[in-house]
């Protein structure tokens, strides 16, 4: 993991592991490829940690 990736995770911007993304109710959920946090998609390309 690069320092920039970790910094993005610390400020709340995550990137999913694409092969593990799936629909759960009304949103896409997955796991962050850099920190492993449970994340959900807020908007196109905008993933946030939280109730995924």
Q: How are helices and strands ordered from N to C? A: HEEEE
Reading side by side through the largest sheet, how are the strands ordered?
1-2-3-4
Number of strands: 4
| Low confidence ranges | none
Helix run count: 1
Number of domains: 1
Write down the Rg: 10 Å
Layout: helices, strands, pairs:
Elements lengths: L2 H8 L11 E3 L2 E5 L6 E6 L2 E4 L3
Antiparallel strand pairs: 1-2, 2-3, 3-4
Describe, in plain words, how this protein is organized in 3D.
The chain is an alpha+beta fold. The protein has one domain (3-49). 15% of the residues lie in helices and 35% in strands. Strands 1-2-3-4 form a four-stranded antiparallel β-sheet, with no helix packed on it. Strand 1 (22-24) and strand 2 form a beta hairpin. The protein is globular and about 35 Å long. The model has no long low-confidence stretch (mean pLDDT 92).
């Amino acid at each position: 993991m690069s320092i920039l990736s970790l910094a993005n995770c610390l400020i709340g911007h995550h990137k999913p592991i694409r092969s593990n993304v799936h629909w759960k109710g009304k949103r896409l959920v997955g796991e962050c490829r850099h920190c492993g946090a449970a994340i959900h998609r807020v908007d196109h390309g905008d993933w946030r940690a939280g109730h995924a």
